[in-house]
What does this fold into?
Amino acid sequence: MFKQFSDSTTNTIEVVLNGQAIQVTQGISVAAMILAQGLRFNRTTPVSNSKYAPFCMMGVCYDCLMVIDGKPNQRACSIRVKQGMKIDTQQGVGPALRTSVGG
Ligand code: FES
It folds into this structure.
């Protein structure tokens, strides 16, 4: 769906997306990276399990929430990829909150 422009000066780094190591363009947002990777959704909602993908790409809608380096509810559109970053699709409220509320 999305194709990223690149040239010989584009630097890549390695991140781990849903357990798989991939090479991505350095300096882009996590949301841009997942769209370029063809990920169809980045989170599911806690109540209806609906699938959401990034929408506004500017930190307003919160549709891009993901688990980044173990922290749930991170806005993927507002965080740049970093070498070794671990990025996971968020299921519902995410792992840390699920543990803290006993679910
Ligand atoms: S895409 Fe809207 S807050 Fe990230």
In short: The beta strands are 12-17, 20-25, 43-44, 51-52, 65-68, 71-75, 86-88, 90-91. The mean pLDDT is 90. Residues 30-37 form the longest helix (8 residues).
